[in-house]
From TrEMBL:
Domain DUF7144: 28-140
Keyword Lyase in annotation: no
Keyword annotations of the record: Membrane, Transmembrane, Transmembrane helix
KW Membrane (keyword) present: yes
Source domain of life: Bacteria
Protein's name according to its UniProt entry: DUF7144 domain-containing protein
Residues annotated as transmembrane: 22-51, 71-91, 96-115, 121-140
Stored InterPro entries: DUF7144
Length: 145
């Protein structure tokens, strides 16, 4: 029978803990960075809708969710600005900022889903980035940070 050396087992557990902590910090940084990008994209989408919405976007008369492009532009600008600010605060490591970031990413994905027929490619890109933000911000094990 061999007895395990407590110092040796603690030393082998330390690199695993450090690796998980680095992955958690990397996922949080990834989520915050993508959130900043999504916020800027969302703001640009809203600005285009406010300035030139009726001429730029596709008219969809038979779509279930019909919206005024200018109204949706202001909504996208507000969501985009909020997402960019939340992305900046996520870099501080604040748990509340991470929670707000996830909520804003879900709201952004929902708004772009409803916006899908008006500007489909852009909406799909932002929805995909929102999914990455949600993944990046929720994979962090808060007990390890």
């Amino acid at each position: 029978m061999t007895t395990a050396d407590p110092a040796a087992s603690a030393a082998s557990a330390a690199p695993a803990h450090r690796t998980r902590t680095l992955w958690a910090a990397g996922a949080s940084t990834f989520g915050a960075t993508i959130m900043l990008v999504v916020g800027i994209f969302q703001f640009a989408e809203g600005l285009i809708a406010v300035v030139n919405g009726s001429k730029f976007f596709v008219n969809t008369p038979n779509y279930v969710f019909t919206f005024n492009a200018t109204t949706w532009g202001w909504l996208h600008m507000i969501i985009g600005l909020s997402a960019a600010v939340a992305g900046g605060f996520i870099f501080t490591g604040n748990v509340f900022a991470r929670s707000v970031g996830v909520a804003l990413a879900v709201l952004s994905a929902l708004a772009n889903f409803l916006w899908l027929p008006y500007y489909p490619v852009w909406a799909i890109v932002i929805i995909a980035l929102d999914v990455f933000v949600i993944w990046g911000l929720t994979t962090v094990d808060l007990g390890e940070l």
